Amino acid sequence: MQIPYRGGTIVVAGVLVAGALTIGCGKKEQAKATPEVSVVTLQPEKVAITSELPGRTSAFLVAEVHPQVNGIVQQRLFTEGADVKQGDVLYQIDPRPYQAAYDTAAAALARAEANLPAIRKRAERFKELLAVHAVGQQDYDDASGALKQAEAEVQSLKAGVESARINLGYTRITAPISGRTGKSSVTPGALAAAYQGAAFTTIQQLDQVYVDSPQSSAILLGIQRNLAANRIKGSSDSARVKLLLEDGTPYPQTGILKFSDVTVDPSTGSQLLRMVFPNPRHVLLPGMYVRAIVEEGVAERAILVPQQGVTRDPKGNAIAMVVDPSNKIEQRTLKVDRAIGSKWLVLEGLAAGDRVVVEGLQKIRPGSAVKVVSASTPAPSPAPSPTSAPAPAAGK
Questions:
Q1: Residue 87 — φ and ψ, nearest 5°?
Q2: Reading across the β-sheet that carries 71-76, which strands appear in turn?
Q3: Contact yes or no for 175/86 (Cβ under 8 A)
Q4: How far apart are CA 354 and CA 377, in angstroms?
Q5: Phi and psi of 55, rounded to 5°?
Q6: Considering Cα of 390, then 392, then 393, then 395, what sign does the dihedral take?
Q7: Whether the model pTM is above 0.70
Q8: Is the pLDDT of residue 382 over 80?
Q9: What is the DSSP string of 221-268?
Q10: 45-58+206-390 architecture in CATH?
Q11: What ranges do the domains of the chain cover?
Q12: What proportions of the chain, in percent to the nearest 5, are helix, strand and coil?
């Protein structure tokens, strides 16, 4: 009688043990099925939006030195490659023919001026005699005409003297601007021809230099759209520009954007930007290749997401996985603008407070529940690095 009960008891106990094992395994599998992910909580940041452009330097002022009179070069009065100041004498052309011409013109003027008082007094006397009918009208007209002719001759001779003086001054060829000289194309004894095509030397002012860079018109349109949408704010002052030298070294001086050309080159689809940089130590020389980092504006509340949190779908659209309030995964399609340091600048698709998955992406899919093991607010992004550039085209 007891065996069946014992057997029944044994059967019941076996069922209870099997049920307990099933429940335990289910809990372990459920715990194992919940993936752990690391997220960053996005916060708006204030960042400067920049573009990096290739460019070439050129002198702020360039002056070619040409002779303005004919003659033989007597002296070269500067050292090639040296700095000169405006007005310094660079070359001396033989002045003797021009000195003689000046002396001749001055003597002719002196003679005409010596005759002028007598002619003027004669005209005044005839005017008085005409009033009392002591001389005829014709006599007075002749005396008056002689005076005007003498005065005109004096003015003509004065102009001749001034012309001779200018030509004599041109025998001393001076620096039209302050700057650094290049090589000299003539030596003493060379024949100078007035306004000849070949320059004697060239002077370049290097205390400031221009940097000319081409900018894509498409980038300009993007900047205008961002300004119109209040994503960035333009500066009321001239845009500030930083510079990287040919070897990648940052240039210590900050420049300004001087102007942008109003014409787009149809062959390249770009327009020219001209920037001005101080160059007190003459580190920048004309013709150097540089990279200009132009500040487009400031984004007051930019959304930046770490690059490891952004992937691409098969169509090339930028996507991010976001943990919603119920700790489930939501896929977002993003519109990104460019890389700033190690982060993407996001225009659309994310907002402040969103929790973006940055680790564990390979273990999740949209709609799955996750366990957030580390939720942190990312540190403010550093200033845009020189390599900041617009991002590849992303889906909207």
A1: 100, -15
A2: 172-174, 89-93, 71-76, 191-192
A3: yes
A4: 10
A5: -160, 170
A6: negative
A7: no
A8: no
A9: HHHHHHHHTTSSB--SSPPEEEEE-TTSPBPSS-EEEEEE-S--BTTT
A10: Beta Barrel (2.40)
A11: 45-58+206-390, 95-170
A12: 30, 35, 35
Distances (CA, A) of 43 to 320, 346, 377, 379: 16, 12, 7, 9
- CA-to-CA distance for 287 and 289, rounded, in angstroms? 7
Q: What is the DSSP letter of 328?
A: B
The owner of tokens 């007190």 is 280
Separation of alpha carbons 75 and 78, rounded Å: 9
Handedness of CA 126, 127, 132, 133 (dihedral sign): positive
Which tokens sit at 320? 């991010």
User: What pLDDT was estimated at residue 385?
Assistant: 44
- Domain 95-170 - what CATH class? mainly alpha
Per-residue pLDDT at 295:
79
Which two tokens mark 288?
Answer: 């150097």
* Locus of tokens 């930046």: 304
- Enter the tokens of residue 272: 């020219």
Which among 173, 9, 19, 37 has a CA at the least distance from the CA of 93? 173
Please give the pLDDT value at position 267.
87
**Contacts of residue 278, Cβ cutoff 8 Å, sequence gap at least 6:** 207, 208, 253, 255
Q: Hey, what are 189's tokens?
A: 């004894």
Which has more confidence, 386 or 41? Answer: 41
User: 254-280 in b/e burial notation, b at 16+ Cβ within 10 A?
Assistant: ebebeeeeeebeeeeebbbbebbbbbe
